[in-house]
## 1
Amino acid sequence: MKNVARIIPCYAADTSGVCSALYELGGLTVVHDASGCNSTYSTHDEPRWYDMRSKIYISALTELDSVLGNDEKFISDVVSAAHDQKPEFIALCGSPMPMMTGFDYDAVAAEIENRSGIKTIALHTNGMNSYIDGASEALCEIVKAYAEEDQNIVNGINVLGLTPLDFTLGSDKDIRDWLKYYNFECVCTLAMGSTLDDIRRMGSAALNLVVSQSGMAAAEYMLKEFCIPYVCAVPYGKLFSKKLASHMASLIRDPLNFSPFVLPCDGFPEADTVVIGEGISAGSLAAALWSDMKVEAKPLCTLPSHSFFTAKCGGQLTAEEDIEAYLKETSPKTVIADPLYQYIVPDNTRFIALPHFAFSGRCFQKDMRSLINKNIKEYFK
Amino acid sequence: MNRVNGLDKPCCVKITDANRDELFPSGLEYNPPARGMWNIVHSGMLLPGAHEIFACAQGCLRGVILTAAEMLELDRLSWISVSESDMFDGTLESDIVDGVCEIIEKLDKRPPVILLYLSCIHLFAGVDFEAIIEELTKRHPDITFVDCYMTPTMRQTVSPVSKMSSQLYAALKPLPFNEKAVGIVGNDRATDDDSELIKIIKSAGREVRDITLCKSYEEYLSLAECALNISYIPTGHLAGEDLEQRLGAKHMHLPVRYSYDGLKENYKALCDELGIDMPDFTADIAAAEKALDKALKIIGDTPIAIDYTVVTRPFELAWLLCEHGFNVKHIIADSAAGEEDSFDKLREKCPDLTIWSAANVNMLYEPEQHHEHMLALGQKAAYYFTTDNFVNIVVNGGYYGFSGIAKIAELMIDAYNTPKDRREVLRLKGLGCASCLV
C-alpha cells in the first residue's frame, strides 16, 4: 500500500512548512490544532526554536469547540494574542481536525484582519501533505502581500525556497557569499536571513533563484506579476556553482531566452549513483557530482517535484514500497540519501549519508554540512 | 509583574490575585523547548516486545516517528498515513486493517502484541475501532491487538497520556490471582526502592510488580496475577480503575503527597489493605526533616521556581518548602486542581508568590527578561527563568513518601551546587529514555 511504511519516517508536514517559511518575518503564525502540531514542529522541524524567538502558536482546539463549530473562540484568541504581541502580520493554517469540520480559513482571516487591523493571511493546510505544500503557499502568499515593483537592480537576485527544512542553518550566508563572489547583488533570501523589508524589495531583482520546490509557486507568481525569470538550482560544489552563476548571468543578459532548468540537474539515465531527496536539491547535487567529480548520478524525488527532476527515476516516488522496489530493481552502486533511508537500501549498495532535516529532524543534525559553493570531493570521495 | 501591564492575557499573576479555579483564561498556546516529559510513544515502548502502529495524518505521524527514531526504537514503530479522501470514501476501517496486515508481513519478527493508535479524525468520523480489532484478531490470532488513541482534541474528556497508561495493560488476560503480587501501575518509571511504599509492600511478604521492571512479554503478562494494584500519579488512576473492572484486581489510588499527614493517610490505607500494622515513621520523617534542613542551610534564601512537570503536586511541594523556610517565589502551573488546600495556605502565608502560565503566548519572551539567579525545580522553570541550576526530574522522578521528600531535597542541593548544560538537557525527549542526540 502506498500509504504504509514499515520503518522509514515521513517528511515534515504542510503545517511545519508554513511555520518554517514564515519563522523570521515577524508575523504571528497560528496552527489551528489541539496540541501535537506545535510540539512536533518546534521539536523536530525547527532548529531555530531555542535561539530565535518567533510568534508561532497553536489554537489548543478542543473537542467541544470542534463539535460546536466555535470559530469565535479561535478568532478572539488570535485577536487577543495579536493585541499583546503586535505582529507584522498574522498567518493562519490548520491541522486535520479543522479540515473535518470545514473550517473556513479565508472567512476567519478576513474577520481577524477586520478586528485586529493587522494583515491576515489564510493558508490552506490540513496536516496531510508534505512541508513543500505549506511552505510553497506561505512563501507565495507573503510575496503577494508584500513584494512591490521597484527600480530594477541589474544583477539583483532573489533566492526562493530557502528554509532550514532543506538547508542547514547558515546557508543564507553561504548563498550570499557565493552571489557576491560572482558579482550578483542579493536582494532577498526567502526565508532565511531576510526581513519583510527585503521582501518588499523583491520586485527589483533581475532574476529569481529557486533552491527548493517550496519556492516554485512564488517564482511563478513573480514571473507573471513582475516579469522576473527564474532558474531552479542550488549552487552545490565549486564547478557546478560556477556554471550556475554563468547560466544566471546569461539569463539576466538575455531574459527572453528563459529556461528555468540547468543541465544536467535532471541526471543521467544510466547513472549508477542515485541521490534521494527533494527534487531541486537532489538534481543540483547530481549536477555537481558530474561537474566537480565526473560522477554520473540521477535524482530520485521523494517529494513533490517538477517533472524535469523526476523523469530519470520513473517519476516521483513517495511510498516506502516504491522506493525500496526501485532500488532493488535498479541496484545502483551508490545511494546518497538521508541516513534513515538506509533501512530500505539493498545491502550491497554503498550508502553515503546526507542528512535532510525535513526527513530525520534532529537525529543527524550535528552531521549536517552545507555543500553550497563548497569542495564536495572530500564529502563524496 | 511589569509583564502584566497592558496585556490582554497576562502570563503571570500574584497568588493573592489569582482565581484558584481558573488561574489563566484559555487562549493560543506556546510550546517551550523543554522536552523531558514522556509522550504516548515512550509509554508504549514500556511493553516488552510490542510493536506500535500509528494510523494518522502526516503531521501527527511526524512527531511519533521521530520520537521513536530519537529513542533508537524506530524498528518498533510503523505507520499508515491518512488522506482526506480516506475519511469519506468508505474505506476508513478496511484501509487500516489492510495496512496493519501489510506491515505485519514485512516485519522481521512477529510481535506478540501490536499497539494500534488511531487519531482524533478517526473518532470524529465515527470509526468502528472494535470492528478493526476484531478483524485483525481473526486474521492474526497469535497477536494481541490493543486499541490506542492519539486524540489530543479529546484531552478534556480523557488525556491521551492517561488513556495510554490504561491501554498499556489492555493486553493482560485474566490469570489466577497471586495474593503475594502487588502491582504498581500507571507510571513511566520505577518507584524508588527506598520509598516507604515499597518497604511496606515488601514487609507484608508481598512482591512488587511494575511494567517498568518487565524484561519480557511473559513477565508483562504475569502482571495480571496481581490481586492488588496501586496507582499514585493522576494519569495512572484510569489504569488501576480499568484493571479493577476488567480483571477484578482491587485498585488503590495513593497519590504522591508532599504533606506528612497526607502520606500517613496513604500508608494507613495501604497497611489496612495488606493486613499489617502501620510502621512507625518517626525516623523516616526525621530523615526528611534533616534533609530539608541541610538543603536550607546550603540554598538559603535563593529564590526557587517550581513547575508542574517536576512533581504532580507543585503547590503542595511549594507549601512544604515554604513551611521549612525556603524562598519559593514562582510556580509554573495552569491549574491548581486537587491542591486547593495547599493553594489556600500559600495564598495566606506567601502572598508575594507568583503563578505563571506554562503555555501562555506571552511566555515566549520570558527567557529574554532579566531574572535574579534562581534554583529551578523542573525543566520549564529552568527554561523560562534561564537557570542552569535545576532539578531535572519529571512526574516525581519515581520518588515517593518521606524518603522521596528527602531525595528531592538532596537533588535540590546537587542542582544548587552543580549547574547543568541547560540547552543540552532540555532538548532530550522522554527523560530517562535512550537518545541518539546524546
Note: The longest strand of chain B covers residues 178-185.
## 2
Amino acid sequence: MAFEDTLPEEEVQHRIETRVSLGHFMANILRAAGAEKADVQQSFAKHLCDTAKLLDGFLRSDGRIARMDYLPGKYWPAQRGRRFAFIDGGVANVALPGAAPLAIRVGAYLVRPGREGADREDFAVQMHFVDDLYDPAQDVYDNDFEDIAKLRDAARIIAEAGACRSLFEEAGDIDALLIQGPLINPVSPYGTPGFPAYTASASEKLCRQAGLSDRDRHFIPLYLRILRDLRDRGSIVAGVVERDGGGRRFIKNVLDQMVERGKLDNARRTRAENFLKKYSLSDTQLLDLILREGEYVLPLAINRQGGPDEQNKWPKKWENEIGQFPLALTTFLKPSENVQPLRVETFEGTASDDLLSLVLHTSRLLPRYGFPVGLDVVDRFAKVPDWMGRQIATGHKVNLLRKAFATDNEKVRDFSIRMLSASGRDWLYRPKI
Amino acid sequence: MTDWIKSNERRIGTVVGDASTDTYTFILKSFSAKLGDIVATPTDVPGHAGTYGAIIWGRVVGINRVNPFFPAEAAQELSEQDINLLDTVLSTTRDYLQAEVLILGATKNMDVTNLRLSPVTYPVKPSAGVFSPPAEAIRVLLTGGDNNQVKLRLGTLIGRKDVDVSLQANKIVSRHLAILAMTGGGKTVAARRVLRELTAINYPIVILDPHGDYLAFFEKRRELGGVDVKLFYPAIRVYGSDSGVIEELIAKMGHRLTDPQKDFFQTVVAQTNLEPGMTAERYIAELITTCGRLRDGGGNGGDRLNALTVNAVRRSLDFVRRALNSMQTNNERLMAQLKPKGYAFTELPDPQTSPDEIVRPGRISIIYLAGFDHLTQSAIASIVIEHLFAHRAKLTDRIAPFLTVIEEAHNFVPGRREGTEDTPSLATVRKVITEGRKFGTGLMLISQRPARLDETILSQCNSFLVLRLVNPKDKNFVRSVMENLSESDANILQTFGPGQGIVSGQAVRFPLLVDIDFDEDLVSEAIGDEDFVKKAKDWSPDPVREEIASIVDEVIPPEPPASPATKRAGKRAPLPDVTFNAGTRGGKPNGAGKRPRA
C-alpha cells in the first residue's frame, strides 16, 4: 500500500496478539468459530490486520489522525481559575414483588483547579426521580407502559441531560461540562406507540418550562428541547463513553468517505463491512489497533439517530422531531497505550482541541483506568450502593405486609406472605399439572 | 445532668456497620474526637423488667480516614509528573473518618454523680448517635463516684486537659506498678510524679538507684513539703542468713573454679568465722587467711591439700576483694563529686538490725548504687529487700508498710533469655512480688527494656504505666504480659510523646491514655546531663604530671630505641645444634612410637 507514515504490519500484528492475550477479541473469535473452519483464528488475525492497515493507511494519509500532547506540567497551571463540571447518573437496582421502583439520582461535581478552600469543589444531586412505575398516580410518567426497562432507561437519559441543563443555569460560569456516556442517545426505541409522556411536574423539572403540551412532554420532543438548549449555550459540553458498546457507526462513516474520495471501491467496501459485521468488530476495537498514545481521529459529525438507510425505522409519529436532533461530533481518543480509546461526543462547532486536551489530561490522572478522573469522582458520588437498594426493598416489604395485615381479608394476607417469601422462580409459581 | 447525651453540640458521630458487645465503629465528624478519647452512646438494654436506657462508654482506639474520591493511582501520577493536586480536577474534600471504639462498660444510671460501670450485655444500635461527654461526667466515670479512696494524681487524659487521671494509691503500694518506656519516654517523669504523690501522704519509700536518677529528691526536699530524704551508700555486710548470697557473689565474681577448687572453697567457708555484720571485704580477707591456714596444715585435712588448688582459690578471693574494693572506691568517688553540691551520704544502716532507719513514714531512702557492677548491685538489692521484707512478713510491725522502687529493673530481675536466672535479687523480688501484697511491701519496677524482664515477675504487677515503646520485642512482650492491652493500644505505644502513655490495671478503672504532669520544680539544678562535648573541648593535660614527666626525662633520659636487628636478636633464642641419627624419619628417633615386634 502506498500510504505514508502508516503503522508497520508487525506493529499491528503485535497489537492484535497483545489484545487477543488480554481477551479483547475472544468473544468475536468464539462467535465466528462456530461457523468457520479450524484455521478461523489465523484467518481472523490476518483479516483483522488487513482491515486495520487499510483504515490506518487511509486515516493517516488523509491527515485524519492527530496527536494531543500530554504536558501536565504546563496544562494544569494554565487551568487555574477555570471551572469544570462532571455529571453522571446513578440508578438503584431494586427488585420488588408487585412494584416497579424507579430511583434515579444525577450527581454533579464542580471543581475550580488552582483554588484552595471551601469553594474549590461542589458536589450536588442535581436531579432525582423516585417513583413506582406500577403506581397509577405516578410522579414521573403520566401513564404506565409494559416495558419497564425502557421507562427506566429513558428516565435516566433525560434526567442526565436535564441535570446538565439546570447546572448551567444554576452555576453559570462553567468552562466545560463532561457527562459520563453518550451526549446524544438514539431516541427511536422510546418512540414506540404507547410510550407515555412525562408528567407536567417532571417535565418542568427537566427543562424548567411550564405548560408544555402532552405531545411536547413526550421523551423525544422533551429530550430534543433540552439538547438544543444545551447546544445553544455554546459552552463545551461533551459525553465521554468508556464502555465499548459494539457500534460501528464511526468506521462506517470513514468507509463511506473513503469511497467518496475514490480511495476504495464499492465492492471492497462491502467486503470490509461484511468482515466487520461477521466478527462483530466495533469502532473501539479497530481504532484501538490503529491509534497510538495521545492520538485521536479528527471528529466526524455523526447522526446518532441513524443514517439515511435507517430512517425508515424511525417511528412515524416522531419523524419530524427525530430529524431535528443535533449531530454528535464524534472522535476517539486514546489516552495511553494500554487502554482502549474513549469515544468523545460533543455538539458541532465546539472547540475540540480544548475539550480533548481536558479529556486527555483528566484521563491520565488515572493512568491505569484511562478515564477522566472527574467522571470517576462523580460516578462514585452518584452511584446508588447495593445496600441502599436492599434497604429500600426491605422497607417496601415491611410496608406491604403491614398493610396486608391491617385488612381482614385472609386471602390478601396469605398472598402477601406467599409473594414476599418466594422468588419468581420458586416452586410455588411453577405450573400445576 | 444527662442533657449532654441528647445534645447536638456534643454529638460527634453515628454508629455504623456491625456492632458487638466489645467494639463498634462510627463515622466521626471532622475534628471532633481523637485517638484515646472517651465517648458515650445511649442505647436501650433488655433488663428483668423490660428495657431500660443505658449509656455505653468506650474509648476511641483507632481512626481511619478514607477518601474514596481520591484514587491511589492519581496520587502516583501527581508524584511522577510533579503536579500540584490543587491545580487539577481531583477532589480532596470528600474524606470521612471511621473511628473504632473499644467498649469499656455500661452505666445504667444516667445520673453522672454516680456512674458505676457494668459489663455490656447488649450491643449499641447502628445509627445511634455518639457523644463526647463533658469533663465532669468523665471525671465521675474514672473515679466511679467514690471519692473516699486516696488518689495519686498522675496527669490528664491525652487531649483533654480538663479531665484528671489519678491512680488508686492502695493498689499501687500493695499490688505493684510497672513503669515501662524506652529511653527518653518519660520513665523518670512518671516515677517522680507517683513518688511525689506518695510522699504527700507520707508513705515510706525505698529507692534502689543505680544511676543517681532520684538524688534530686534530696536537693528538692523542700519542694516536697519537707519530706525526710536520706541518701545511703551501700556497705556490703554479711550476716549468717545471707552468707549464701555473698558466697554466690564471690563465686560469680571470681575466677571460674574447678570442681576440686569449689570443694576447697566450701571447706574454707565452713572453717571461717563469720561475725554477723562484718563487711564483705573483711569477710573475704578472713577467707583468704583461712586458705593460708589450711594450706599450711592448720586445718582439717590440710595435709592432703594440693598447693595449686589452694592458690587458685586464694587468687580468686583476692580478685573479688580487689574488685569490691575498686567498686566501693568508684562509689565513693562519685559521692565525693556530689558532696560540694550539698549532697550528704551516709552508710546504709543494717537492714536486719536497723530497718526502721531505712523505712519510716515520711521518709525516702535512696540507696545509691552507682559504681558497682550489676551483679554486686543485685546482691545488695537482694540483701536489703530480703531483710526488709522479713521484718514485714514476721508481722512484728517493726517497720511500716513501704514501697520499693527498682530502677533499671531488667538488671535486677532479668528474664530467662538473659541467661542470668541466678541473679541474687531475682528470687527475692519474685518472693516479694508474690507475697508482698499481704504484708504491704509493694514494688515499683521501672525498665527501658521490658523484653529483658522476668515474665513471671512482670505479670505479677497489677498496674502498668507504659510510655513510649518502639522496639517490637518490647511491645510484643508488654502485650503478652498485660491482659487488658488491646492490639490497637499496643500499636499506638510508639506514637507517644515524652510523658505520654497508657495506664491500665487495678489502679485505674479502665485503660486510659494519659499525659503525665511534668514536675518541673523537682528537676535537679545541681545534677544534669553532662555536656561532654564542652568537657572534651575544655580538657587539658594535668600540668603537674607533665612537669614531673619532663623532669624525669631530663634526669633519666629515655633509652634510644633498639634497632630492628637488635630487636630480632633479642627475641630469638639461639638455635640448638641438632644431629639426626641415621634412619630417623619425621623427626622421631628410629622406632619411636612403634610397637615392638612380638
Note: The domain at 151-234+348-522 of chain B is CATH 3.40.50.300 (Rossmann fold).
